[in-house]
Amino acid sequence: MLTVKELRQCARDVVLMMFIGYSFLAAVYISGTGVTQDLQNASLLIRDADDSPASRDLLYRFGEPYFLRIGTIASEREALARLDDGSAMLLLDIPADFSETLNRAARPASVQMMVDTSNVAMGYLASAYGARIAGIFMQDWSQHLAERSGLDLRTLPEIGSATRVWYNPNLNGHWFNAIAQWLTMMTVVALLLPATALVRERERGTIEQLLVAPLTAMQIMLSKVLAMTLVNVAGTALSVYLIMRPLIGVPFLGSTSLFFGTTALYIMSVAGLGLLIGAFARSSAEVGMLVVLVVVPMTALSGTWTAPEAMPAWSRYALQISPLHHFIECAYGILLRGANWSVVWQPVVAMSALGIAVFGLAWLRLNRRWS
Questions:
Q1: Closest by alpha carbon to 144, among 202, 116, 87, 105?
Q2: pTM for the whole thing?
Q3: Is residue 349 one of the residues assigned to a domain?
Q4: In terms of domains, do 254 and 133 share one?
Q5: Which residues contact 302 (CB under 8 A, 6 or more apart)?
């Protein structure tokens, strides 16, 4: 009955239901379709002092969708000014002797590309793409010169390489963005709902009615956790079957029961932390501030958006106390790799241990406060 009461209270809160709908539907859709970590339409200025077929061939390769040529300039000073004011991200400067140097092959031909790396990730991608384009251009030009001189390229040694991409063969970053956003928003909701439900009882004065009822603190806590877990699992189902799969194309290769079972376990683990927040908070405003204080480091130290291998050594140890870090292995593994129980049992055990520990702390705090 307490669980039904919690579900009814949640359904009657219009603002809370709108937030839940945004978290599981709108936020996932926006992140999965409107946000990309790939290089697209990087504004490129061109200074071609050579104006030869070779230089035009090179410039042609710097095109859409990665680069967007926004103009040709003759002054290097103007180019630097455009980089400084942010109206251009890159400058490709081809010297006057570019084609002559290529034809003589007496020394390497040089091309300068200046990159605005205010956005480090996009700057790194732009420089890497530019270096690869230049490398392919030089390979093609070397082959052209060799054929013109009568050299049979088939007699030269060659290294063959084959790359096989698993689980995301098209390197679709929208899959990653959608799942990562769902993980982040679900964590926020799983923390916020039980904490808000607990503080709301205190603010409305209904906590006294619960205390005089023949109920223990554990029963009150379990009812709130169970109700909020059902809400989150329902939101996850809507997110998967209404947004991620049909609109973004995220695959679902693993077991449905294993996925929703591990999701429910993760939500219960985080909900225990939400109850602990509600046990310390005295108002809804404090709940909001404490949730932000908890969810930001939990997300940052989980590997959701940043690979653990790229983190400092101390933070990699801190990852182990984040339930989200362990659930990431389950979510990505089941959805994209079709992982089974033999693969995810270790993160499941870790999540369970963390959930029991946090739930026990919340019970001690509430039991002491209500006794």
A1: 105
A2: 0.79
A3: yes
A4: no
A5: 319, 322, 324, 325, 328
List the chain pLDDT tens, one digit each, 371 residues: 677 877 887 788 888 889 889 989 998 998 888 766 777 788 888 888 888 888 888 888 888 888 888 888 877 778 778 878 777 888 888 888 888 887 776 677 888 888 888 877 788 888 888 888 888 888 887 777 776 666 666 666 667 777 777 887 777 778 888 898 899 999 999 998 888 887 877 767 666 566 566 667 777 778 888 888 899 999 999 999 999 999 998 999 889 999 999 999 999 989 888 888 887 888 878 888 888 888 888 888 777 777 777 777 777 777 788 888 889 889 989 998 888 998 899 999 999 898 888 888 888 877 776 65
**Judgement on whether residues 66 and 93 belong to the same structural domain of the protein:** yes
Q: DSSP secondary structure string, 11-57?
A: HH-HHHHHHHHIIIIIHHHHHHHH---S---EEEEEEESS-SHHHHH
Q: Is residue 163 part of a domain?
A: no
Range of the domain at 247: 2-35+170-370
